[in-house]
Amino acid sequence: MDCQAGYAKRLLEVNLSDKNIRTSPLEDKMLMKFLGGGGLAAQLFLERFSPGTDPLSPENPLIVMTGPLVGTRLPGTSRFAICARSPLTGFWGIGTCGGNFGPELKFAGYDGILLEGASEKPVYLVVDDESVDIQDASDLWGKDIYDVTDILKERHSGTRKPKILAIGQAGENQVLYASIANDKAHYIGRTGMGAVMGSKQLKAIVVRGTGKVLPALEEKYEAVRSSVMEKCKSSMVAQSLQSMGTAAAMDLGMMTGDVPIRNWTGAEFEGSGQIGGPAMTADYLTKVHACYACPIACKRVVKVDSGPYQTAEGPGPEYETCCTFGSYIENDNLEGIIKANELCNLYGLDTITCGATIAFAMECYEKGILTAADTDGIELKWGDIDAALKMLEKIATRQGIGDILAEGSTRAAKKIGNGAEDLVVAVKGLELPAHDPRGFHGMGLEYAVGYRGACHLQHMSLYIEQGMSSFEEAGFKDDYIGTESQGKAEMVLLSQNMGVPASSICLCVFAYACMDVQDVADMIHSVTGREFSAQDLLDAGERIWLLMRGMTNLMGATGADDRLPPNSLIPLEASMSAGSVPDMDLMIKEYYALRGLDANGVPTMEVLKKAGLTALADKLYAGK
Amino acid sequence: MAHTYGTDEWDKAYQEYVANRLASESQPYIYFTPEWVTLYEKAVREDAKYKEVAKAWEGSVVLHIQAKPEYGLVQDTYLFMDLWHGDCKYMKIVPSEVGKNGDFVITGTIDRWIMVGKKQLDTVKGMMQGKLKLKGDLPTIVRNVQAAMRLVDLSSDVGGKYPDELSPDEVESLGKTMTEMDEQFGMA
Ligand code: SF4
Hints:
heterodimer, A: 624 residues, Aldehyde Ferredoxin Oxidoreductase Protein, subunit A, domain 2, six-stranded mixed beta sheet, B: Nonspecific Lipid-transfer Protein, Chain A, five-stranded mixed beta sheet, 9 helices, binds iron/sulfur cluster
């Protein structure tokens, strides 16, 4: 079925308990208000589900959602979001990724899939245009992501190979930071959506569609497409991503104090030059790869030919992974990082939380909080990638101490005790991504107030504060000093209003970083046919941010959760941040006032009503 | 008739020209003029930190300054730096055809270069934001980003007069100098 004016206006609803399958309409008003992706998923959750639901129970829905631009040939618009209450954090969970699943779902005629209940035995879902079927997955359970993807592609190859979403053994074992993979190459890692999928005994979703996504204003669409394609091709950010992938940020980040070292306690790391983008490009890159219709092609395909870390040709590690399995644990062996990345991909683990949790365990080991007796004899010493790889396997299979570490560092620390809590580097239970707030104070504020916990993707601060994009037309200064806290609350607020819609229209932030806000508004206008200005985009951003923040508040978060962990606030004199630490009190105070959060970190009734979020206001203020 | 670049004759004439300029002009020199380039070359050659961070650097770097007649920059300037493993073999203003073919060419308006000189614009950020354009192998630049940053730091440490600070007479004189260089060395 074709999607007219960007939307299919249909939601596929699948109840895995009673196997009921139906489609329900998505109303125009709701679509334009919440756009798609995370915003739309949050509103659906709010309207129909309880925020108090146990994340791994059948009552927690898993919502796969695309946006209006997905399936067009506009650059960076291949993404989709998967949302649920997070089993890792207990708060609103959202992960996004690119690839080809989102466009294919639109071609099949659905904006999203809402999965409810849980199957009694392993199953997978097959969506082939109008035909939707739940099939037995007993033979697939226990298989890794690469195998299950290959099998399903072959099994369902008709006129055209289908696109696959799958979990690995980590998702089956409900490791709380299990990921979901699209066609082996693109991963929804953050907040443990793979564990929710595993709890439903849903091994995979197979989708094939034959429709098209048709823009409402063809001529305008062509004009804006050619303009943004040109920008994406000529931008240095894009060229850097294309030639080195995201790992280019390793070499550059060492210059600015952005790269966390030794579970965030280290200031210098001599091996950084051996594990970044240039090194990967020179020695292991076999080809580059792109998400659907993206001219940037930031994805790496790599291979380690021989030796103890030999890998098959497959997706290369992103910057974050080079940090979490590199600088976080003081490992300068890139082959070991590529191996860790491959294992995380096969098992289906978030490489950020997994590496960060191992780094946390290494610091526990250094301080004697964990000993070899606790770790089944594995000596968790800094720099030892072999120990990290062994631990990774234990986590994926929940063996020995891996069963504790499979809960993420926050919960693991509670179980370990003896001061382990002080070594956790997470906000709201989500491990910090690899951008150090001591080098970039605004990032610290983003992490602290983020609705899904410490997040580097649901806003544009990373690009703006680091000067990769300037967006002066949107009201930003042309330059920010990373190690200053003054003025950052305003920057962060605007960057969220600007960036949050990207996770709802499902636009890649890298492509966004090559464009202007007006370009994004023009893309929405040309595809949906509705008047949509840059200000409309910022207003939608504010609304959707408040909605997701409110969801996290409904799930129990308060102002006390808006705090950075101790390791990330240790002054590092020898680092490029030269002993600087963010002034969190100042920034949070200013931010709360600007955003309209009360002293408890909850959006005020007034601000919610102004944003048109009455249903959320009613729930947050019920009985008050 | 201009000398032909790449010949001994061109080199000799250029050296003589620079020597005359050094004798006739007083400091502070105007940024990106041949006499200023000699100071910059000396600073790079003598800088221990540059030698250390540029140990792995191989290849020429060209700073391309776009023309702005209001400042006396009547044509584009290409400052060619032949750099090798921490050494600076030479620096000179070269004809555009030569400059465009440098291994790494960084292009910007003079106003952007002035911002770089005054440390109001970080070179890496400038390139990422498209305020300065880079032609050349990005991984090499990224791998040697510290060397690139040091080169830029040295250019501002050398000091000099920025073209936006010139009096009308100086603007006229700079314009004449550039025209003269074009006539002798085929810069355009
Ligand atoms: S820039 Fe990279 S992640 Fe973004 S859409 Fe393109 S290929 Fe995918």
